[in-house]
Write a structure and sequence with these properties.
alpha+beta; 27% strand; Dna Ligase, domain 1; 14 helices; globular
Length: 446
């Protein structure tokens, strides 16, 4: 019977098989849109055991050979609500990306934005029997981490060592071959709702695809939108999606915290639709074309023609005009509410204690005019809008903040960070057994 450790290692092996074939896809299943990117890799041999701590530390050169985006179906709050509709949307976007790439894709890595993520800091310590740290000792100290009871229905998505220490020397990224008596580790574990994760796995399998990995959307968005110095010194990425606003905090190039606010740009669209009595499509158009946060005196005079979504024969209803000031008056309170919730999450995480305290806004919702100024007022002064890193072959229309998670997922596929399951665990370790007991959804879905 397979547990999480074995299932995650199996997915890593599938990822290796996809890389050996040279082609793999990444799939960002969001509440508002789905994006698929087909990646072409150099071929076998890109893994080098000496590059980093674990066997997944090797680097891969890659480029984009196909990409597609479509409207999401059957999604709510970043989770699958109607399986059949989501399956059709996934098949559509993957098929479109494959046609543009001119190749068939069997393996995908997907990301999840909802599922109520929750972070835990774990710590472990072992004695170095030989007086020098070996890879076996790294596996032993990870297995020795004291794992709490995550609760019923909570499963581990990421378990990453963020810091190693030998005796009094801390801040080690690779402790191998260091001399000392005691090896300690700090590990960040991110848990999610097991049903939401299981539904994602089931949907991918129904689409006749092999799942080669699952990642948190908040995590991959941060990897794409934060520059190297920001990831090193301590920064937060706020990924403002349609149904969920993801929050991730990075220090020393590792994610140390992640959470999600179950509010996003779709709520702003709903407010506009109800407030102006227009269709959802018209409300989305008003938000993206004329929306904003900061009103000026000129906005009272800027009139926008709207319709009620259906021809009723009532001219005043079918061909109305509203001022941009009225539109901003509807949008701003909801955006303020979302940012207030994000502020509460950052405060609970102790973000103010970090040296940099840089905040990067990304995601489709971050493109609302005036958001940067309002966010600086609510979240802190160091706020900027983050575009994802450029990757070879990516079309210009996918370099916007709304595609940060998609680009980050490609980086995650090509340059994975070490995770707990990348190391050989001592079977007799209490910590290893505890973590295996804490996670079971892969057992039923793999």
């Amino acid at each position: 019977m397979r547990d999480l450790y074995q299932a995650q290692r199996a997915m890593r092996q599938m990822r290796r098989a996809a890389l050996a074939r040279g082609v793999m896809a990444v799939l960002d299943i969001g509440t508002s849109k789905m994006s698929c990117i087909v990646l072409q890799f150099d071929g076998p041999g890109q893994f080098r055991e000496e590059d980093g701590v674990g066997p997944m530390a090797g680097q891969s050169n890659f480029r984009v050979i196909g990409a597609a985006t479509t409207q999401s179906r059957g999604m709510r709050f970043g989770e699958i609500e109607t399986m059949a509709e989501t399956e059709r949307a996934v098949r559509t976007v993957v098929s479109s990306a494959q046609k543009r790439a001119g190749v068939r894709v069997d393996h995908v890595i997907a990301c999840l934005s909802g599922a109520r993520p929750s972070s835990y800091g774990l710590a472990g310590e072992v004695t170095l029997e030989s007086g020098k740290c070996t890879e076996h000792d790294i596996g032993a100290v990870l297995a020795a981490c004291d794992v709490p009871d995550f609760g019923r229905g909570r499963e581990v998505l990421h378990a990453q060592p963020v810091n190693f220490a030998i005796d009094s020397r801390s801040g080690l990224s690779d402790p191998r071959d260091h001399v000392g008596n005691r090896l300690a580790v700090d590990m960040h574990a991110l848990t999610i709702d097991s049903d939401a994760a299981g539904n994602l796995v089931h949907c991918i399998r129904r689409c006749d695809l092999e799942l080669a990995g699952v990642a948190s959307a908040a995590y991959v968005a941060g990897r794409a939108a934060l520059v190297e110095d920001e990831q090193e010194l301590g920064s937060a990425c706020i990924d403002m999606g349609g149904g969920v606003t993801g929050v991730s905090i990075f220090v020393r190039k590792h994610m140390i915290f992640a959470d999600a606010v179950r509010m996003g740009g779709d709520l702003v669209t709903q407010d506009i639709s109800r407030g102006l009595r227009v269709s959802a499509q018209m409300a989305e158009w008003l938000k993206t074309r004329h929306g904003g946060i900061e009103a000026t005196g000129r906005d009272d005079r800027e009139m926008i023609q709207v319709d009620g979504g259906q021809e009723t024969g009532d001219w005043e209803h079918d061909r109305r005009t509203v001022s941009r000031a009225d539109l901003i008056g509807i949008m701003r309170p909801r955006v303020e509410e979302i940012l207030d919730e994000v502020r509460a999450v950052l405060d609970a995480a102790g973000f103010d204690q970090l040296p940099s305290r840089q905040i990067v806004l990304t995601g489709g919702g971050s493109q609302i005019p005036g958001l940067e100024t309002l966010a600086a007022r609510i979240l802190g002064q160091n706020v900027r809008i983050g575009r994802p890193l450029r990757i070879q072959g990516l079309a210009q229309n996918m370099t916007t903040p709304g595609h940060a998670a998609t680009v980050g997922l490609a980086l995650f596929a090509a340059h994975p960070q070490d995770e707990w399951w990348d190391f050989e665990m001592p079977v007799s370790s209490h910590g290893a057994r505890s973590l295996k007991r804490a996670v079971r959804w892969f057992r039923n879905n793999w």
